Records
---
Amino acid sequence: MRFKQLLIAVGALAVLSFSQSAIANEGGGAALKHAEIDVTDQAQIRRGLTVFTDVCMGCHSATYVTYKGLMDYPEIDLSREAVDELRGDHAITEGMRTELSPEDAESSYGKVPPDLSLIVAARRGGADYIYSLMTGFENDPEGKIPEGNYNKYFTGHRIAMPDPLAWLDHDAEDTAQLEKDAQDVSAFLAFIADPHQNERRAIGCWVMGFLLLLVLVLWRLKVEVWKDVKH
Amino acid sequence: MLNTIMKTKLFGWVDRRTGAEAIIKSQLTEYPAPKNLNYMWNFGSLALLVLVIQILTGIFLAMYYKPSAAFSYGSYTVAFDSVERIMRDVNFGWLIRYMHAVGASAFFVVVYMHIGRGLYYGSYKEPRELLWIIGVVILLIMQGAAFFGYLLPWGQMSFWGATVITNLFGALPVIGEFLQEVLRGGFAVGDPTLNRFFSLHYLFPLLLVAIVGGHIHALHVVHSNNPEGIDLTKEEEKIMFHPYYTVKDAFGVAVFLLFYCYFVFFNPQAWGYFIEVDNYVPANNLSTPAHIAPVWYLTPWYTILRSFESKLLGVVMMGASLAILFALPFLDRSKVRSARYRPVFKQMVYLFFVTVIVLGYCGHSAPTPTLKLIGQIATTYYFAFFLLLLVVPKFEKTKPVPEGI
């Protein structure tokens, strides 16, 4: 066995350890639903922003996302008028913060709702987890957890957040719309977790292209320089 | 090209005052290297490259980073905020930070490959014992620098990782408690810890640069080993470092950058291996994450620590697992260097590589009884490998080494 075989063996082991990720996804044991999201889709991100401001922001903040950011990120690109309407009295450089005070949240729900700026990055399963959670409210099969606090995908199933999209007991004809809202807001949250991700991937393609050429050129150069060396 | 530059008037002026030409000749254009080095010999120059990347990106990150655990909004802190400001508001801050975060893991990938190559081809043996020992010092400083750096974003894994590791020092008798408090700057990990870790995170790379200089100097005294592990006596077995190995290293750099940039631009978290998911949650001393594990490059040693019931014994054995690397050149007395001509050693060293990967896997995973047992078996072999080297040369039938290459 030479080093080549060793490398193959190491590679195989690495792939093996990656494939069965050491720590399972979030999801309280249930397999997460796959969210159909596209973080380059302006329409979807804007719809998600609306869900966020209409529903989530009642309790949650996204303090790292400034109102100005909603104008500046090409993926959102709101007009000044639209942003002014959203921000009300808040300065344009301020982050998007809920009106609910931590004390009121504590007394109403028993805990302070987490900031959502990084929620997709901070949860295993990412956007799939958010989407699943939004559409995972059920009645506790064992009847122990009160209605509205049981979520199929939440670790331990008891969630302090009351069913934000009113998924529980919704009419069958609303299913498609609620699914869509849940996916849209997941897309928005996935975008704001890393707002330069599209720029990063776009630049990355050029970088990889350049490096492939560089590898090719330097490989030929190496072969040329080494052609007289017998080894 | 180099020759043209060396003939210029300006170069002559510099040369008369620094002896630059003699240095270039002795270190590059007339520095002899074995002609049969394989691609495993590329990882040294790659490690140097990543060190430079880390220092340059780190300097720029430090211009924007603020080491303060003071709360800003909700559970967010000034330190956590400053990292997010780098990611969101600083021009190309995301690029600099991802280069640094991916660079930390890349550094360990190339250095572990570099160490593995040294182990396999017997590069630690006479006359390169000190070269190897300086290398082990570099590894220890790297691990320290990486550990200090991981605290800086002040996320959950930063905080709890630092809590677990600083706790270890408390297990030492007599001085343990004192040492732990000095490291933390208090009774628990907090703002003073963050400040001193930031200072140390800036200091350690400076030490690295100096010691890497020593490592390269020592290499240029004893010269490179080669895959056959034999001393080269004939001139035709050697080639000049420049242009042969400069161009080969340049090719290696390009291939490395291809992998590195894939992670920087397309997968900077590397499925939670390079930046752990929980580190996007701000540090909270009242909420312990379900599973605390160090970043992948420290997990083999973490498994050794966890394999012992007694905390003190675990800490001592973890220290021993690193310290034994210093002793390696003196444990293995076989005259043959390369594993190519040592059938028993070859099997042992392959098993050792697998063992380290298994140790890493166990340390990264949530502990279960099965994994613990596997970790203990792997720990046993980790130490057995070094101790067996004391006796292996006594019975190992080595294959005849070639006269030359």
---
Amino acid sequence: MKYWIGAALLFIAALAAALSPVNEYFFYAGYVVLTFVVLSTAWNILGGYAGYVNFGTGAFFGLGSYSAVVLFKALSAPLAVQIVAAAAVGAALGFGVGIMTLRLRGIFFAIATVAILFIMETLMVNWRYVGGATGLQLLRPDVMAPFSSYTRMLFVVMALLAVVAVSVARYVQVSWIGRGLRAIRDSEEAAESSGVPTLRLKVFACTISGALMGAAGAPMPMYLSFIEPASTFSLNWGVSALAMPMIGGTAHWIGPVLGALLLGSIQQIVTVTISNEINVLVVGVLLVLFVVLAPDGIVGLFKKWVRYFR
Amino acid sequence: MIFSFDLLFEAILFGILLGCFYAAVSIGLSVSFGLLDVPHVAHPAIMVFGSYCTYVVAGWGLDPILAGVVLMPAFFVLGVLIYRFYYETFERRGSEAGVRGLAFFFGLAFIIEVGLILGFGVDQRTVQAPYIGSSLALGEYRIPYRMLVAFGVALVLTAALTVYLSKTFTGRAIKAVAQDEPALRLMGANPVRIKQWAFGIATGVSALAGAMLIIVGPVEPALDRLYIGRTFCVVVLAGLGSMTGTLAAGLILGVAESLVLMFFGASWAPAVAFGLLLVVLGIRPQGLFGR
């Protein structure tokens, strides 16, 4: 109950901010940070709980973006429909990849996700309808009533998606599904022999994770008013979506949220003040530092700190 | 799509040359991932780093292949250090090392890539040598000398590593550590030192592979991303740790990619390695020559 009140309050705060005369740039940057909250939360459902690393976040995210663009171009579908469709496509991809490679060891799944990423990029590069390699310029529809700009509206949409994603992750964590996934992470053989339906749980986690990543990608083309394969299917999405839960802590749903808020904000500041390359470097260095020195992330450090003072 | 047997023949010929090159760039990974079971996703990044080191050393007036050979000891030491660090931080701690080890190497790959961007910029780099730019005319076919050089070096490298692993004492120990580590420990050998040595060799070979990479074509910092697919495709298709399998798998990939390049165009070529990798993972994950 406390969780739901908190989530509702945060969402209302985001809505109120979007209706207030705060500087437009806040929403422009905030949208990206919230996207990372969704992506890292989604990544953590499979990567954190079950221990299967997905490098191809960009594939799910990008496929969501392209699904939205196709729907928009063909039927001028409204944003809500685009998001739902993108989630469905992301879920289908997650299910397919999961069925195919989640029987194998984690490293093979990880490599398969990289493969999916590049195959998606090649497909979109060769698909004329969505602009091929040069991309497609998109004309935003008119903004809806209470909002004064499209970016503000997208910010609220992404805030809602973030609340949904975190709630799903929290549900998975506290339910029997989460217990099963944790058992898989600790020892797959032991889990299997104690009657945990390991493959079914892994595929389920991969499907949910893919759906959330796809949904997160849907509003991106409208945010940029543009879509192009190289940056949409970049491996950089993958390293961020992996680094954020690792930095925040993978065991608890709050971990990826903390990691995304922290690292996402740092990225926004670094991109604006220094350069995009340094931004990737910061992610890489922080990832390696945390993985080596603080394997349980910020949440783990916090727990240690609490224990130390009690 | 224009089809003729001349084009087909040319594509297969080029594919064989390319395939040997792919085998050579994958053979380091075949040792580090195939035999030692290290999730070494930074292998292509280290190779591209080798290309840039070759670029610098060749800039002093050395032949690029010689530069690659000169760099091998330094890369050997680098490999030993990387494995030592990986072992102390992840492998020894046992459970859950998989996720963190993977994340570590992924992060390392990005750090190397950005480091190269900061040091050299995003422009493509090439090296100069007499055999780069000219080609051998065989009747109506033209084979670029750079491909022939890469082909030759690749064959020598693969043969040398195969002989080393099957005929020498240390080489057999490396294979033993891959087959049954506890048994090796019971025989009184130290598996960690053997793995460290093997990882060093795998990384040392990457320096020469990097030299070939920059001979075959221009190199840019983000090139490692494409080679994640090619190298892992070859190693998985080969069957983990099989050296002759690596050569065969390299040839399969090379010919497949060359055919797609010839008949469907360059924009489809990057997907070949990744598609083949997915098919292998889906149908026969133990590879062609798997144990």
